């Protein structure tokens, strides 16, 4: 196995080799978190630059060498997630209602209409369903 594929090849806390501080999977300092982890904590990066990265090998990833990267942000510099205003929530509700309303029967069918058909499944003729 070559040195590039070993986990210690990803240990670069100073960032000399990879440009930013780099750690192997599950070895990053506890104050650094990925974007998904920040979201789970109710935070967002808040415009801060990437503070580091985690690298690991993956057999499923098709990049050269199968190396995956997750960028890390400092939780101490992160800001709280923004909440939508009542007007934004109302607009989203109207948009979703429009996606659920059939143009043929004008009813809210309770699911997002398939773009393939442009109508609810009850309004489709047998010919339209077989043609699509």
What can you see in these coordinates?
With about 130 residues, this protein is of the alpha+beta class. The chain is built from three helices and six strands; from the N terminus they run E-E-H-E-E-E-E-H-H. It has a four-stranded mixed sheet with strand order 1-4-5-2. The chain starts with about 20 loop residues before the first strand and ends with a helix. The mean pLDDT is about 90.
**Mind summarizing the main beta sheet?**
4 strands, mixed
Question: How would the global form be characterised?
Answer: elongated
Give the topology string: H per helix, E per strand: EEHEEEEHH
Structural class of the helices, strands and pairings? Answer: alpha+beta
Radius of gyration computed on alpha carbons: 24 Å
Mean pLDDT: 88
Helix content: 10-25%
Give the SSE layout.
Layout lengths: L21 E3 L7 E2 L1 H6 L2 E2 L7 E6 L9 E8 L4 E2 L5 H15 L25 H6 L1
Parallel strand pairs: 1-4
Antiparallel strand pairs: 2-5, 3-6, 4-5
Short summary:
The protein is of the alpha+beta class and 132 residues long.
Characteristics:
132 residues; alpha+beta; four-stranded mixed β-sheet; two-stranded antiparallel ribbon; 3 helices; 6 strands; 20% helix; 17% strand; elongated
């Amino acid at each position: 196995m070559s040195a590039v594929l070993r986990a210690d090849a990803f240990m670069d806390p100073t960032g000399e080799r990879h440009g930013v501080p780099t750690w192997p999977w599950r070895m990053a300092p506890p104050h650094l978190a990925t974007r998904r982890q920040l979201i789970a904590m109710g935070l967002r990066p808040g415009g801060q630059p990437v503070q580091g990265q985690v690298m690991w090998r993956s057999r499923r990833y098709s990049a050269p060498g199968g190396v995956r990267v997750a960028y890390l942000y400092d939780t101490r510099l992160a800001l709280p997630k923004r909440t939508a205003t009542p007007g934004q929530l109302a607009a989203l509700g109207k948009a979703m209602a429009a996606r659920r309303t059939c143009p043929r029967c004008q009813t809210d069918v309770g699911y997002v209409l398939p773009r393939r058909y442009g109508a609810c499944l009850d309004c489709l003729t047998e010919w339209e369903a077989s043609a699509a």
